[in-house]
């Protein structure tokens, strides 16, 4: 499961870089950091925040 989250963070970072979403790059880096130290509680919290990130992206697209 952690491998899938790592892959998700990598893909998310690539998307963020390509679209210049610095907040999303920071979010992907946070997930990567939490994976490296295996902080499962922080990782759980970060993953729960993802729907909010999607909403933020949607608001940028609508502008």
Tell me about this structure.
This protein has one domain. The mean pLDDT is 90. The protein has helices spanning 2-19, 22-36, 40-48, 50-62. It is built from 4 helices and no strands. Helix 1 packs antiparallel against helix 2 (22-36). It is mostly helical. It is globular.
Q: Secondary-structure blueprint of this entry?
A:
Elements: H1 2-19, H2 22-36, H3 40-48, H4 50-62
Oligomer: single chain
* Mean model confidence by pLDDT: 90
Strand content: under 5%
- Count of helical stretches: 4
Count of domains: 1
Question: What is the H-and-E element order?
Answer: HHHH
Separation, N- and C-terminal Cα atoms: 36 Å
Largest sheet: none
Spans of at least 5 consecutive residues whose pLDDT stays below 50 are: none
Structural class: mainly alpha
Helix share bin: over 70%
Identify the overall geometry: globular
Please tally the β strands and state the result.
0
Radius of gyration: 12 Å
Question: What brief labels describe this structure?
Answer:
63 residues; mainly alpha; globular; single chain
């Amino acid at each position: 499961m952690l491998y899938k989250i790592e892959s998700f963070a990598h893909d998310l970072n690539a998307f963020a870089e390509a679209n210049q979403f610095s907040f999303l790059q920071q979010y992907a880096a946070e997930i990567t950091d939490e994976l490296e130290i295996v902080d499962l509680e922080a990782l759980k919290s970060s993953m729960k925040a993802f729907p909010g990130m999607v909403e933020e992206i949607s608001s940028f697209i609508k502008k």
